[in-house]
Amino acid sequence: MTDIEIIAHRYPHSTLTERKRFKIGRTLERAMEKMNLYMQWREKYQLDGSTFRKPNPTFKTDKDVWDWAVNYAARYYQGDSVKLDLNLKEPGTLPRIVRFGDVIDLKALDGRRIVQVLPGMLDKTVAPQDFYSLCVAIYLDFKLDRESNETIHVFVDLRAGKNWPNAAPTVLMPFVKDLTNQLADNMPERMISTIVYPVPSLAKPIWALFKAFIPSKIVNKIKVLWGPSGVKSPIPKTMMKDGILDEHTLEQIENYRVDEFL
Fold this sequence. Notes:
The structure is a single chain. The relative contact order is 0.12. It contains ten helices and five strands, in the order αααααββαβαβααβα. The radius of gyration is 18 Å and the shape is globular. The protein is an alpha/beta fold. α6 packs across α7 (169-186).
């Protein structure tokens, strides 16, 4: 039996593309360990049940998917329930900290989809950080086809927003670490690149500390752009130099951010 066949025999509910992705750059033993944790995660949150993958015609926009993911996560969350707002099952209760777009998803010049992350909206008075991380993971799992080898760009915009909670970038870095670890653990090989911007220079020691807890393979895919992160701070000019974005997409990304101002 090949390694892929061995993984399939042990984890028959995994997909062929998942087996191949989990095996890339890993020994069979390590791939089996990661697959085991991944399948446990899916079982814990019932991600293969009919209530999760059942087509829902009301999903007309990306926001509909986010609100649904929050509702779903609230039903299965087992963390600090004392800090979890009881109204989270109502649409729009939890700040929409992640999006692929609106009716049409954002696309990079290479044709890959872009997921925009706005950690400045993270409000811990509504829910604890690990609940946000769970919502993002469920949202991404729904948006990404398990049968597909699709890879994505992740743009983490650390700038403050008008009337957002706006925790300091040094406080938001743990969330960035959680996000990248979620992708590494449950969606390996999905992230083609992650750009974290703009990060004030005072956060350099914090980033140096946290990247030590992120697999080196993932760290190599993360690009940090340094600069001021206020409400009116511009997107770093270097964003246009990597050949990922055109001016129109960059404008869309900025408009989506401003649309979330309260």
